[in-house]
Design goal:
Chain lengths: ~280, ~280
């Protein structure tokens, strides 16, 4: 691991690291904010999963998360959104290939060699973070859009792995919307059952009665340009209701899909995670 | 004037507008954050001047200013850093020409036709803002690096025009440092006296005994890569002491020249301005 950026920020340090990922078989970058408390104590870690087209930079430069992470003593880790590099398969559109890993493990050629973002985010990255930084094993997960899908799916697939979960404008039912259908067809093949293992609403529908049910906080802008076509939060409401999963879904008049929306509410999400992570 | 972006943010609206500037003889863009209070009352305006290479986007996407502007009921206007367009003269380096207007009125060819950022920021832009938005004529000014130079110089050259002033890592003595020497030689010619009219430390040295003296807040990172070569805050300290001008200069260990530094302290600057602008 090599540190390639370090900036003092709100009394802590916003850093970017690079490392050779064995899961993804390429070099990867991630952002990590170390709050002032991490100088003297182990801090819990909030993993943030970004949306389509993003790198590790978008969230750390635009969301204003550092102020709240410093207030609450939470480390924030923001990985890239896919494997990267000349040797990694890519596609023409912004919604498939590099920048569009969808936080799953691909089974289809040519994607299956590198596109294993689920295992990277769930296993390899926390192991690195917990070994290198003053991080505890208390983990929260959140994200935006494709990354909101990632947060929901990683939580639902890995009971006990996370202590807190939230999302901004998530893709809640990728098997039912154009972004997800395109990506899943490429990464997972045309078998519809394979897609259900990576679809939050489908995972909720098969949730065991005694499964872990964390309080789920979701914020959604009502002026979001992708609301009706790609996001469809009503499907998450239905799935949570049917499976008895707690959900606080807040709809915000006038807010769109941008980082201005995330910035306006990230403080409340950090507080939501911190309450569980410090409990 | 045409609105080209609008995003709900912290209960208000982050917008970007474009207009044909008669001062600069080109089309210009500026960012404007309208806090929730502007829906029902005239609000004072903080003008933010960005640094070398920036457009109107950098500050509005990276500084996190909107939260504080919403708390304090302050409109924030962020212009571009130079005239723009294919018809506007430019130069090879990042520190001259487009993106590097230095907030002065150029006297030398080929720059003098378009490069009149002083008059644009002091006169044309406030007239537009005060006519179009729910803005009072209470104005504050701040900025970063080249824009910190701009804030200091516009305040000192225009007594009574601003009610509050501050700067982040400003170029305080452009006639004495490489960035300023290069730009001033091009825009103003080799006459050293011409440069003194656009140099904060020189303007302080000739400040009239009865001139307006606003409380001046300046923050400077001690790990700033341009500290010793381009910024030299000790020259501002000396000039303020010699001219009896108030100055609170705060040096911050570990902080660099980036927006992570600005984001960490912009809340205190907005509070500094709001106290004067609402008085």
């Amino acid at each position: 691991m090599e540190k390639i950026e370090s900036h003092a920020c709100f009394g802590g340090s916003q850093e970017v690291w690079t490392h050779a990922s064995h899961t993804l078989a390429c070099d990867m970058r991630f952002g990590v904010y170390l709050p002032p408390q991490a100088a003297t104590a182990r801090c819990p870690v909030l993993y943030w999963l970004s949306g389509l087209t993003c790198t590790e930079q978008n969230f750390i430069t635009k969301a204003g998360v550092q102020r709240y992470a410093a207030e609450h003593g939470v480390i924030v880790v923001a990985p890239d959104t896919s494997p990267r590099g000349a040797e990694v398969p890519d596609a023409e559109g912004y919604d498939l290939g590099q920048g569009a890993g969808f936080y799953l493990n691909a089974t289809q050629a040519p994607w299956s060699t590198h596109y294993r973002m689920h295992d990277y985010v769930v296993d390899e990255l926390p192991a690195l973070v917990e070994a290198r930084f003053n991080a505890s094993t208390a983990r929260g997960i959140s994200g935006h859009s494709m990354g909101g899908h990632g947060a929901l799916v990683l939580y639902l697939r890995n009971p006990g792995r996370y202590r807190s979960v939230s999302a901004f404008a998530p893709i809640v039912a990728p098997t039912q919307v154009p972004w997800g259908k395109k990506a899943f067809a490429a990464y997972l093949g045309e078998d519809r059952d394979a897609g259900r293992d990576w679809d939050a609403c489908a995972l909720l529908a098969s949730l065991a009665p005694d499964a872990q049910r964390l309080p789920l906080l979701v914020d959604q802008g009502e002026a979001d340009e992708f609301l009706a076509t790609q996001l469809r939060p009503e499907l998450l409401e239905q799935a949570c209701r049917a499976s008895g999963h707690p959900l606080v879904l807040r709809r915000h008049a006038g807010y769109d899909h941008s980082y201005y929306f995330i910035a306006s509410l990230i403080g409340e999400h950090v507080a939501h995670h911190a309450a569980a992570l410090h409990a």
